[in-house]
Amino acid sequence: MNEVLTKIRATALNVKNKIEKKKKPEVSIPIRSLSNVNYDPKIGYFELKGAKKIRALTVNTIKSFAQTLKMMALSKQVVESNDMATKREAYYVSKNWGDARFKEQPESDAVMDDIEAMFLVNREQLGFIPEEKGGDIAGKLKVIDKDPTTGKEIEIDCTKFGSGAYSIPSSVEQLKFKTDAKFILAIETAGMFQRLVKHNYWKTANCILISMGGVPTRACRRFIRRLADDKKIPVYVFTDGDPYGFMSIYRTLKVGSGNAAHINKYFCVPQARFLGVTPQDIEDYKLPTHPLKDVDKKKIKDVIKNDPFVREHKEWKKALEKMQKMGQRAEQQALAAWGLNYVMEKYLPDKIKDPKKFLP
Amino acid sequence: MQTKLSESKVELNHALEQAKKQREISISEFFTKNRHLLGFDSPLKALSTTIKEGVDNALDACEEANIPPTVKVIIKQTTPERFQVTLEDNGPGIVKQQIPKIFGKLLYGSKFHKLSQTRGQQGIGISAAALYSQLTTGKPIKITSKISKNQPAQYYELHLDTQKNEPEITKGEQVEWDQQHGTKVVMEMEGKYQKGKRSVSEYIKYTAVANPHANLTLVEPDGTVINFPRATKEMPPKPKEIKPHPAGIELGILINMLKSTKSRTLQAFLTTDFSRIGAGTAKKICELAKINTNARPTRIAKQEADNLLQAIRKTKFVSPQTDCLSPIGDELLKKSLKKEFDAEFFTTVTRPAAVYRGNPFIIEVGLAYGGTLEKETNAELIRFANKVPLQYQQSACSISKSVTKTKWKQYGLHQSNGNLPVGPVVIVVHMASVWVPFTSESKEAIASYPEIIKEIRLAVQECGRQLGKFVRKQGKVKDEAKKRSYLEKYVPVIGEALKEILALKDKDEKLINENLKDYLERSRKL
């Protein structure tokens, strides 16, 4: 039997037995926050420490307890019938649960996250998928997928999308890859991605371009991980030169997040390296800047103190302190100050000559 | 030089000129011009002040004679602006000779010169009403009074001479009256009758709350008869007249007492003119003040009154006797509240007697909560001084100040800073004292002496604590009901989910629901 189904059954059985003996039914869920993760560069991602919260069935918790069990029942039904439900659909299914229905989708999402953490699986394994877009691909890559109706293999050539791009599907486990690219370039903004695609940068640099569109989705992270593992190619990350780009985007891609620590194992890309824009780049390339916002300053202070990733990597600590001292940030597109194609003709070739200088 | 001469001449002329105009002002004349000081500033207020003064006098008279009061107020509209007010009581009646002076002379009364808990104080009220009646309608005030069933009733019609402050009898005769004893006063005046807040009917209702031994009836201009029967036949303990207590006495009053005393020595003065000073204490005071115990009080008044006062201030005294005061009483106040307000919870507190400026006083607080009382509005605050409701100048009154300063949130009510609490609450505060310090002659607000504020605060807080307990308990009951409905709603969902996951039979599902409900019901009580 499927691992998830076994776990659902075991949990339900445990609850039933406790009720029969008139004892307090409980489930335990790992605490999901930065304070409950370890970071070891050899392992490569944030790992959960042991802290757990016990959710006991009492009068006060009965509603969320009932919702959790109903959500498990839904998961069982979906997995057994080899179907899937989007997070939104799951929310609408709950409208059929009488008083236990969810008022808003964030409530059902939170219950879903709890079950993921409880079973240490990801929501795709539970049969739930997000409706968020995974990210865009262009460049030297052939993706081998299956036709949803016939099950026949189809080969998608990512060089053949012209000025458009291939979209990463929400579930990527079944995909296979063919490529001879030298590296993957994961880009923060759609604007920068467009520029590189338009001028066929992937051809000159022999690479795969991926647009993350802000913080990468789970599917995007998983896609990059599988591709990089499978084909043994390096991953370079190119974001804005600000704390959001460094931490929320790059760090999440590389080692995962505190909130989703139970699934970081699958969704991290430990081999990722940070190309830029670094605080050093701002000086070296004399980039136009904006002053740091209050939230930026707060974030820098906070991660230097609390983030296990920054504590582990002294280079990052130095870079962040440098930015703190400068009091300035720079966007990717600030490179356009030296000409629209400066980024392809000078900045990226310069940087890629020496990947050892990239931040870890 | 010349100009200076003429200047001084002009000044002299001014003085002579002014001297012609300077003359004594009669009190009646003064109040004619300053009626607002007595509460006659608007037709609306004039009517209610008249009734208030009449009812106060009637209740005082009945209590003094130990008669359970029955008071009837009849208001008739005679013209669009005029009303005829009839006030009738079953009091001891007034002897013939006194009637004209009591109703036709301002500042004539029995209560001003003594220290005793009475409603009236200055002897202005009812004669001021008569004066107002005369000023607005020109009609005389008509009094019928009977002092015994063996004597005929005396009837008078009076005018007030505002120049001389003397009554003018326009008619006086003996009449038949089927009452055994009592007094009836009829006046006609300009006025305005209104229902609702600060109305006459509100005043009568509040009076009934503070006077559970009284039977009050109001006949409104539209013919509505409102009767408040007595809640008890027992008369409140009769307030006693007392000597001033030494704590808090002020220099001016002390000097006056020294001047007017009949005692020949300081020792005798201290022991007889004050309460709570015995021979030993008197001796100690004299030693402290370095004055001979045999010194003549009149001499001390001029030279050493200040030393004496300092010595008195340094001395500790037994609290003033409290049998001189007549509070409503815990039980009766609660009974009254239950009679007049449809609430769920009642609590009352009577503080022990305290002293301000040498005058003993007692604070009583009652509180009614819940039931059909208005939920969304400010609490109804009812203020009483010597069992008389105070309807105006709420914000200037020390009662309101104490109540609004109390932190009601800790007792489970909403309150924005510096305001009355919001919720279904009636708060009753009564100050009983031999001398209530009003802020003005119209007796609408109690002055803010720290001792008074403190006593009110303590009493209100005590009631608040009782209320808090009740509100919390009520909250628990609500929680209980909420939990019950929670179980009803969600236990079946758990059974259903387990059934779906484990493919259980209906029988098993039912058993799970029963067991779970049973378990939760039990655990909740722990």
Describe what this molecule looks like in 3D:
The complex is a heterodimer of chains A (360) and B (526). Chain A has 360 residues and is α/β, with parallel strands linked by helices. The mean pLDDT of chain A is 90. In chain A, helix 1 (3-20) packs antiparallel against helix 2 and helix 12 packs antiparallel against helix 14. In chain A, strand 8 (142-146) and strand 9 form a beta hairpin. The longest helix of chain A has 19 residues, at 62-80. Chain A has 15 helices and 17 strands. In chain A, strands 10-7-13-12-14-15 form a 6-stranded mixed β-sheet, sandwiched between helices. Chain A has 2 domains: 3-129, Arc Repressor Mutant, subunit A (Orthogonal Bundle), CATH 1.10.10; 136-357, Dna Topoisomerase Vi A Subunit, Chain: A, domain 2, CATH 3.40.1360.10. Chain A is globular, with a radius of gyration of 23 Å. Chain A has helices spanning 3-20, 62-80, 87-93, 105-119, 123-126, 190-198, 201-205, 218-231, 243-255, 264-267, 279-284, 294-306, 308-312, 314-326, 342-352, and strands at residues 26-30, 37-39, 46-48, 52-56, 85-86, 128-129, 136-139, 142-146, 153-157, 166-167, 176-178, 183-187, 207-211, 235-238, 272-276, 290-291, 328-329. Chain B is α+β, with helices and mostly antiparallel strands and 526 residues long. Chain B folds into 4 domains: 29-228, Histidine kinase-like ATPase, C-terminal domain (Heat Shock Protein 90); 251-314, Helicase, Ruva Protein, domain 3 (Orthogonal Bundle); 330-468, Ribosomal Protein S5, domain 2 (2-Layer Sandwich); 472-525. Chain B has helices at 2-21, 27-33, 43-64, 99-104, 125-137, 200-210, 251-260, 266-273, 279-289, 297-303, 305-314, 330-340, 398-405, 450-502, 506-525; strands at 70-77, 82-89, 141-146, 153-161, 166-175, 182-190, 215-219, 225-228, 345-350, 354-356, 359-369, 380-385, 388-390, 425-433. Chain B has an 8-stranded mixed β-sheet. In chain B, strands 9, 10, 11, 12, 13 and 14 form a 6-stranded mixed β-sheet that branches. In chain B, strand 12 and strand 13 (388-390) form a beta hairpin. In chain B, helix 7 (251-260) packs antiparallel against helix 10 and helix 9 (279-289) packs across helix 11 (305-314). Chain B is globular and about 120 Å long. The A-B interface holds A 8-9, 12-13, 15-16, 19-20, 22-24, 57-59, 62-63, 65-67, 69-70, 72-73, 76-77, 97-100 and B 483, 486-487, 489-491, 493-494, 496-498, 500-502, 504, 511-512, 515-516, 518-520, 523-524.
